[in-house]
Amino acid sequence: MNDKLKTVQDDLAFLRGLADGAADKGGLGAAGGALYGAAGLLYGAQTLAYAVQERGWLRMSSLANLVMAWTPTVIFLILMIIVIVIDRKQPRRGVASRAVNAAFAGAGIANLALVLIFAAAAVRNNDFRYWLFHPAVVFVLQGAVWYVIFMLRKRGWTALVAIGWLVSGVALGLLVDKPGVYLLVATFGLFAFMMVPGFHMMRQAMRPAS
């Protein structure tokens, strides 16, 4: 009997945490939203630069391309460290916010595994197109994460972001043989479904509670 009562109490505490979490407008918090938005800006600018080069509007040296390939990741890692330090000083957030953070963290871990899978396939088969499927799968994973956020938050804009990621991911998978269009779709997806939602979550989290 006591075990059943404890289980009921735990379930009620979880549901209460979800309800309380609805007041947490940012989801990722101000720092996490800023990091997500910055990632969209950095990698969106990178893919845009590649798209411009693909169309022949810009010529860059091998060294410049190498710098462009690594600069967004280096900046992102620095920002991530800053966010981790800031988050440690923040008060503990509700159950829903922790679930959102866990979903993004899980997608990040999966992304690392996918890097190894697709990079190995591209090298083994000497075909760069294998690597081009990696961003497509990452986009789909982001869509799955945003579906989780929609189910937790029940906000229409989060459903639109989820659909945008999923549609963009499928489009990338179908466009691996058309690099120009592929890069434009990737650029649009990163700006529209990562940069914009990230900075939106940051602004929401920074607003004073009414």
From TrEMBL:
It comes from Caulobacter segnis. Keywords: Membrane, Transmembrane, Transmembrane helix. It comes from the Bacteria. This is Uncharacterized protein. The chain crosses the membrane at residues 67-87, 99-122, 128-150, 157-176, 182-202.
